[in-house]
Design goal:
Elements (H helix, E strand, L loop, with lengths): L3 H31 L8 E5 L5 H9 L4 E4 L2 H7 L8 E4 L8 H7 L2 E5 L2 H14 L3 E8 L9 E2 L6 H11 L4 E7 L12 H13 L4 E3 L6 H6 L4 E4 L1 H4 L4
Helix pairs in contact: 4-5
Bound molecules: pyridoxal-5'-phosphate (PLP).
């Protein structure tokens, strides 16, 4: 049996989640309006990596409908425990040996960065008779330690090639571009990366931009983000 102290602690915890969500929604709305965008153009994707199914359920009960995980296996363990309808996003790097499982579990994949992984997903989706929405992850900074196809506005050869290959794949629907900027000390430093991604998306006529995390989502919205991916702003810092 739960004692009263524990019950009141749990209440405080879900109130904190509700309060964080409220503040974030208000901030998204305010920022969008400041740059003459409709707040409904910006989707809040709640990033649940390392978060328990119990905590995630609270977020779903508060009305959230988009969840993002960055590992296939972790998502596979947690999603079946959750009640309610939600769209499942994979935001982390995907290896070809996990493509089949990813195709089964997720609705949207943000991290396509090679023809190889796109082909593996296409094959898996053909077997499942399923259409998967995908983003191409772009590495704009040229950091070699990071995932994503290396491209920028001046040199988009790799990106162009990947886009044209994906467009030939009947079970993958390419919706947009995604990026994770390099770690910086102020969020303003990320603005050029967001702006660059937007320019690339315009050039290739892709409408969705998955960019902006807890520390910089306002800047990303100012620069055109249509999906912001937030974890720690909602759940607190991860260990
Ligand atoms: C963890 C993660 C996020 C969320 O990061 P926060 O700073 O906690 O908001 C967003 N995108 C990707 C790809 C991530 O791995």
């Amino acid at each position: 049996m739960m004692n009263e102290k524990l019950i009141s602690f749990l209440n405080i915890m879900s109130n904190a989640l509700a309060q964080n969500l409220k503040n974030i929604s208000a901030q998204i709305k305010k920022t969008a309006q400041q740059v003459n965008r409709a707040p409904t153009e910006v989707c809040l994707l709640v990033v649940t990596k390392t978060i328990s199914a119990e905590q995630i359920q609270k977020i779903l009960d508060l009305g959230i409908t988009n969840l993002g995980e960055n590992r296939v296996q972790e998502a596979d363990g947690k999603f079946p425990l959750l009640r309610g309808n939600f769209t499942k996003h994979l935001i982390g790097h995907l290896q070809t040996n996990k493509a089949k499982m990813a195709a089964e579990i997720f609705d949207i994949i943000h991290s396509i960065d090679s023809i190889r992984i796109a082909l593996a997903l296409e094959k898996a989706c053909a077997e499942l008779d399923k259409i998967l929405r995908v983003f191409i992850e772009v590495n704009l900074s040229g950091e070699t330690t990071k995932f994503g196809v290396h491209a920028n506005f001046k040199n988009d050869k790799n990106l162009q090639e990947l886009i044209s290959e994906i467009k030939k794949m009947p079970h993958l629907k390419l919706v947009g571009l995604m990026t994770v900027p390099p770690p910086v000390s102020t969020q303003e430093e990320n603005r050029p990366f967001f702006r660059e991604l937007k320019k690339l998306a315009n050039k290739f006529q892709l409408s969705e931009l998955s960019m902006g995390m807890s520390g910089d989502y306002s800047i990303a919205i100012e620069e055109g983000a249509t999906i912001v991916r937030l974890g720690s702003a909602i759940f607190g810092e991860r260990r």
